[in-house]
Write a structure and sequence with these properties.
Elements: E1 14-16, E2 21-23, H1 25-43, E3 51-55, H2 60-73, E4 80-87, H3 94-108, E5 111-116, H4 117-121, H5 125-129, H6 137-155, E6 160-162, H7 167-180, H8 183-187, E7 200-202, H9 210-219, H10 235-250, H11 254-272, E8 279-280, E9 287-288, H12 294-298
Parallel strand pairs: 3-4, 3-6, 4-5, 6-7
Antiparallel strand pairs: 1-2, 8-9
The structure holds iron/sulfur cluster (SF4).
Residues 88, 125, 137-138, 141-142, 229, 231-232 line the site of iron/sulfur cluster.
């Protein structure tokens, strides 16, 4: 028996347990795009002459973010959209996703810049993976990627830097920060006022569950890499992902509740924990809060 869409008589492609709605293709797409437009309007204050850099890995999340930003803002002549990809140097994985990223930007007619860890920091993830390290591979990758993206965004005069973080990513990070008691990091999850040297981050997919981002990419036939990085596996995050997914099955809406709770709390947290003063890293010149930036510290530069 086919299940019908709650809003029309067509066949449903998804059941959103948290909203209790079965939706057909058309109404699912409308629902995703409505939520994303609302997030952009309420949280990211898009202005005349904005230059919007979109971090594009070629995976589902960043590809959907670019596709929708282009759909929503691509017609505005006063706004520039530029995609930035980062080649971390992961053999057998990154080249394919970069190829798909290139395909998407060509189809959409969007300028595409590719930067690499090797050029910017003199090291690849493959190099780092076999070195003696204090932390997991993803910790290094995350810090270096942030630095490379911010530098590239500054180079093109970007006023916003869009990333593809979805609801699952955000809910996991909120819980992870609670488990670690790391409220300074918690505060940094929300968009802050522009700080010289740091491009403001925007996460238009933060209200969309990961499964829905994947379905949206499939329905729109986006060229997307669904393969997994060989170094994936930040242990604690993996446990939290499983925990949250099982909570979501038994208590639909848990991920949204975590995000809503965070959004209510963050204003008060910001007052208690104002952002640290920024300075320039004495090695590389990146903007940071100590005399050495995270990337230089991690790479043992002194
Ligand atoms: Fe980098 Fe980890 Fe993502 Fe791989 S899974 S691309 S190592 S952050």
């Amino acid at each position: 028996m086919t299940i019908k869409c709650k809003k029309c008589n067509h066949e449903a492609v998804i059941f959103q347990k948290y909203s209790g709605m079965h939706l057909c293709k058309k109404h699912f797409i409308e629902d995703v795009e409505r939520k994303i437009k609302l997030t952009i309007r309420k949280e990211y204050n898009i202005k005349k002459n904005d230059v919007i850099a979109v971090a594009l890995s070629g995976g589902k999340d960043s590809s959907v973010a670019l596709y929708i930003i282009h759909k929503v803002l691509g017609e505005r002549p006063d706004i520039q959209i530029v995609a930035i990809s980062v080649d971390e140097g992961i053999h057998g994985y990154r080249p394919h996703s970069l190829e798909l990223a290139k395909q998407l930007t060509e189809t959409l007619g969007i300028r595409h810049i590719i930067k690499s860890f090797k050029d910017e920091h003199g090291v690849t993830m493959d190099d780092l993976a076999v070195m003696d390290r204090e932390k997991g591979t993803c910790s290094y990758c995350g810090v270096l990627r942030k630095s490379v993206l911010n530098r590239a965004a500054l180079e093109i005069g970007a006023t916003k830097l869009v990333t593809g973080h979805n609801l699952d990513d955000e809910a996991q990070t909120i819980l992870l920060n609670h488990f670690r008691g790391d409220m300074e990091r918690m505060v940094r999850l929300s968009p802050s006022a522009a700080i010289e040297g740091l491009v403001m981050r925007a996460k238009p997919l933060r209200n969309i569950p990961e499964k829905e981002v994947a379905l949206y990419a499939l329905i729109n036939s986006l060229p997307v890499d669904f393969s997994e990085c060989p170094y994936a596996g930040e242990a604690l995050r993996g446990e939290i992902r499983e925990l949250l997914n099982s909570f979501e099955v038994n208590h639909p809406g848990t991920k949204y509740s975590l995000l809503r709770g965070f959004d209510k709390l963050v204003g008060a947290l910001k007052k208690e924990l104002p952002p640290a003063k920024t300075e320039k890293c004495r090695i590389c010149g990146d903007t940071c809060t100590e005399d050495l930036c995270q990337a230089c510290k991690m790479l043992g530069r002194t």
